[in-house]
Design goal:
Rossmann fold; 12 helices; Helicase, Ruva Protein, domain 3; seven-stranded parallel beta sheet; 316 residues; 3 domains; 14 strands; alpha/beta
């Protein structure tokens, strides 16, 4: 079994490639819920939904989020009624949020609700929210502290960032199955997701980081930073706010207490040799996922690198 920590659009693209080279039943996805929030009275889980949609062939290829071919008539109607409309929920996407919220109000946990939704969509892989507890990523900008969705979607990540924190993480615990998935995995992969706001909240949940440290499986990450900048989104600004170098070295530093190998883009192959870490192995390949073939080839390469790393780990 392969356990994958993931979130964001880069994570969804990587998952799309991975599901094509590994049997779906052998994949367990541990997904960021630090972006979760309430909208129109509904519980929204953006990263869980993106993984769910990509695994069920529903994800919009054009937008990278939401449902393919969706319409937005409800959004327009709510806007006319005076409701906020800066977070775009499509009409088919809305059904997922309605179903999740209904299950939660019935007393189901987020993990149980996710399991019911993925089963209904015929998904064979296991999708695990990182926790059933409320954890919210909060971003401090010059004007004060705001939610991640406010910073990322409403304000389009234009504000300078002073710091990031994960409210509620100190009182959270890993969702059932998360720690077991990590400890029983044959390999563990961190998707090319934002290290601060996509993977960071997962690592902040009690028990998850320790499980990674205790795992005997090879643990590898794909860098979302290429040439000293994020492939997409605000990862660079957020890493800088957390005092991490905006480079492959910064990605390695974020995961240094458990990481065995790091995959960097071919453009960073030489740069990756400029920092030293005696226990960290480096691999390079094309990590820019512009096409479906790019996604599949990256996933295939990462699994191969993980197999090599496993052999070296056993030998040592």
């Amino acid at each position: 079994m392969i356990a994958v920590l993931t979130g964001g659009t880069g994570g969804a693209k990587f998952v799309d490639g991975l599901r094509k080279v590994v049997p779906p039943r052998e994949l367990t996805f541990i997904v960021n819920t630090g972006d979760d929030f309430e909208w129109w009275g509904l519980h929204i889980s953006p990263d869980v939904d993106s993984i769910t949609y990509v695994l069920s062939d529903l994800l919009s290829k054009e937008r990278g989020w939401g449902v393919d071919g969706d319409t937005f008539q409800c959004l327009e109607a709510m806007k006319r009624l005076g409701e906020p409309a800066w977070f775009q929920i499509g009409d088919r996407d809305l059904s997922t949020h309605l179903r999740r919220t209904h299950l939660l109000r019935e007393g189901k946990t987020l993990c149980e609700a996710t399991a019911e939704i993925t089963k209904s969509l015929g998904i064979e892989s296991t999708v695990l929210p990182m926790t059933n507890s409320p954890v919210e990523t909060r971003v401090t900008i010059p004007e004060g502290e705001i939610s991640f969705q406010d910073y990322f979607v409403r304000r389009r990540f234009r504000d300078p960032v002073n710091s990031v924190r994960f409210s509620g993480a100190e009182n959270s615990s890993a969702a059932p199955g998360v720690v077991d998935a990590i400890l029983s995995a044959e390999m563990i992969l961190l998707a090319p997701s934002n290290p601060v706001t996509s993977i960071g909240p997962i690592l902040a949940v009690s028990g998850i980081r320790k499980a990674l440290q205790d795992s005997t499986a090879p643990i590898g990450a794909v860098s979302p930073i290429v040439g000293g900048a994020a492939v997409s989104g605000p990862a660079g600004a957020l890493m800088a706010a957390q005092k991490l170098p905006v480079s492959v070295a910064g990605v390695a530093e974020a995961y240094q207490d458990f990481l065995d190998f790091l995959i960097v883009d071919s453009a960073d192959a030489e740069a990756s040799q400029l920092f030293t870490n005696a226990r960290l192995e480096m691999y390079s390949t094309n990590t820019i996922m512009k096409t479906n073939d790019d996604r599949t080839e990256l996933a295939r390469a990462v699994v191969s690198f993980a197999s090599d790393s496993k052999k070296l780990k056993v030998a040592s």
